[in-house]
User: What shape does this take?
Amino acid sequence: MKLYYLVRNVLALAFILVALFSSCSVVNVDENENDNGDKNATSAFYYAVEITDQYALEVINLNGEIIVSGSDETDSVRVSGKRIAKAKTQAAANDALDEISVTVTSTDTKVSIRTEQPNSENGVSYQVDYEILIPKNWIVNVTNMNGLIKVERIENTVAVQNMNGDVEIDQIKASTSVGLLNGKISANIELPVDGNCELSTINGTIALDVPITTSAILKANVINGTTSLSGLTLNDMTQTIRQIEGKLGDGRGSITLSVTNGIITINGY
Assistant: This one.
């Protein structure tokens, strides 16, 4: 429940400064029918925000897929995606699409992206999918309610909160934290000296890959399920079917993994 209140509080934040966009475009509404017979209305969007002194990204979404990619060859934050509304009739889907908005704001330190939409009810649902490109040395903070979150090729602190949906953390060279209620966490992390990695899910699995040169105190705990370790040597190791503890290398950083119902696997490469 802690994660629920965290997400609810974060979604209550107000944004007061509007970014200067180098471009913004919205295409015509696409109409189609899904497998359930519901009608869909879809509209694509694109924003490019000029980078001045910012060094952090914040994304707050409700339903949909979020993909954040780092690059060393971009001088702007590029945000593309689509708004999707589903309803029993095409007219209702088209009307619902107008109720979804994407807000991009900027301060001296960060770029914030936020979805505004009503609650899904009366056979109407709302979704926004994002693909975001940023400099790879930026801080990343992503919050979602339902849907996949993927963060890749980042070399600064990453924080992810999700309610329902998988979380993929790939090619991260920084401290990382993930809090999830239901779903799978898969992570490939190169922990810096004195860095921290905290991954937790209530119902699901954690699969963590780290270099064999990692230096950290490792603690992995499952309440109902199993843990496994391969390709790594732990000093002062304590291991049971539901718990693994020990020291990797000099133990400079920390890795804490927790699952209530599910499986933890840790692999070295």
Residues 14-134 form one domain. Residues 104 and 113 are 5 Å apart (CA to CA).
